[in-house]
Amino acid sequence: MARAGLNAARLTAAAAELADEVGLEQVTVSALARRFGVKDASIYSHVRSLRELRVRVALLGGAEMTERIAAAVAGRAGRDALVAFADAYRRYALDHPGRYAATQMRVAPEEAADTAGLRRSVELTHGMLRAYGLAEPDLTDAGRLLRAALHGYVHLEATGGFAHPRAVEESWARSLDALHVLLDNWPRRADGPAR
Amino acid sequence: MARAGLNAARLTAAAAELADEVGLEQVTVSALARRFGVKDASIYSHVRSLRELRVRVALLGGAEMTERIAAAVAGRAGRDALVAFADAYRRYALDHPGRYAATQMRVAPEEAADTAGLRRSVELTHGMLRAYGLAEPDLTDAGRLLRAALHGYVHLEATGGFAHPRAVEESWARSLDALHVLLDNWPRRADGPAR
DNA sequence: GCGAGGAACCTAGCACCCCTAGGTACGCGG
DNA sequence: CCGCGTACCTAGGGGTGCTAGGTTCCTCGC
């Protein structure tokens, strides 16, 4: 009997593929063991728990995603950067729904062990927003709204929330137009009374 | 032994409470049976499957949510309506995280059996958007972006996605300001080239 | 008041899941 | 070629969803 040659990295990769194919919920120790032709218990030599496995998928997904976004945004600014950012974000989430879902997990800082990646990702968006002339605290507020809009859009789209016939691609493009306008006209504090 | 007096409605209500307390994932037939002091199998006299139970929670949550939003929006228009809508949306989601999570399920039309509620909810948002002078297809596009922003915001907030210290309440208020501005200046097709 | 029928709930059991404890066997460095 | 660590195993406990096939209780028409 040849050994399967398991290790944490291979397990994580397989779990990520599985998550994209059948959904993060269906990523199971048993399924993974089946895929490697191995007993469930063997998995636990390389990974502490199912939870840890999913966290690894989340970290993998997060890293891949910020990498893609960074590549897309590189050398662009303003509207171009926004569109590149958003398109890369959406594309990754749609191409890798399981990994993307994993990134949405609440993961404790000590589990992450990868604060650098996280910091890089927020720097990415802050850099982009600064190009719109935003500074703190508007930076944080606009960043939150932007993240919310992107995540919400992709999440709703992925879970079938957009039943209406109008093509999503078209709506997406228009929404990016709108977000660009929004960031260009972000209501600063001095501009008016706070609602 | 007194009968527990189960029925689908009571089960749904209990499942909804449970979902809000411990999360939708933890809503389990066994847990529900425990709560009623009854064996698992008894549940299946009233509900076909765990899936059906969760769908019922989703429908309940959806109905409650649109009702609250409708009450909040009633008699308002423009910015007031937007803020009332968004606040009611967010409040419901934060007060009832389990029910809210359930509403995010992909549910087939024949499972819903409640197209009226759904239609009412889209009419609610469309009515609000029309007050901003929007018409199809901008109505659909703006509606999608608005839903995405609200859902994304609430979802990120609920899953601990906003680690940054700046108070979420403040960010939220600013984001609503921004969304109002956005809807007021929605980039119509004629206004410029499509990116 | 009473039997029939249905509803409410049960026992028993399968399949699948996560995870632990304690082995066995393979292959590499000495 | 021999020890030893690592890769993988067997065995098993506990939780979960769900089904099949009872049994007991309540209600309702007579």
UniProtKB/TrEMBL annotation, chains A, B:
InterPro entries given for it? Homeodomain-like_sf, HTH_TetR, MT1864/Rv1816-like_C, Tet_transcr_reg_TetR-rel_C_sf
| UniProt keyword annotation of Nucleotide-binding present | no
Q: Where does this protein bind DNA?
A: 28-47
Keywords from the named record: DNA-binding, Transcription, Transcription regulation
The GO molecular function terms of this record are: DNA binding
Q: Which PROSITE patterns match?
A: HTH_TETR_2
Q: Which residue range or ranges hold the HTH tetR-type domain?
A: 5-65
Task: Tell me yes or no: is DNA-binding among this UniProt entry's keywords.
Answer: yes
Give a single Pfam family match: TetR_N
- Name used for this protein in its record: WHG domain-containing protein
Native organism is Streptomonospora mangrovi
Organism ancestry: Bacteria, Bacillati, Actinomycetota, Actinomycetes, Streptosporangiales
